[in-house]
Amino acid sequence: RVDENVYIAGQIHADSLQNIKDLGVKSVINLRDKSELGFEDLSFELSKIGVECINDPLDYDMRADTDMDQVLSVLDKCKKPCLVFCQVGLRAAAVGVAFATTRK
After folding, report:
1. What's the pLDDT tens digit per position in 66-94?
2. Which fold is adopted by the domain 6-102?
């Protein structure tokens, strides 16, 4: 958890959707690309529980400032609280740190 509005995680699964709803999460930002091994598209399942799913892939190298700026812009505009996730949580943590240091 970054703050009261932003959570970070590794890959989420269908069996964790109730926990996401119980936290009051209104938006989920998926940083994974569909080509990644183990990609699981939960957009439909999230919409069924009233949570918006935003797919905004972020490359592993995260070298382009414009890529991070794009994700932060999406995070700024989405409904809160928001959960940001990737495969193991590294990219999500980087977004969380960038959000905490540039948006506070």
Report:
1. 788 999 999 999 999 999 999 999 999 99
2. Protein-Tyrosine Phosphatase; Chain A (3.90.190)
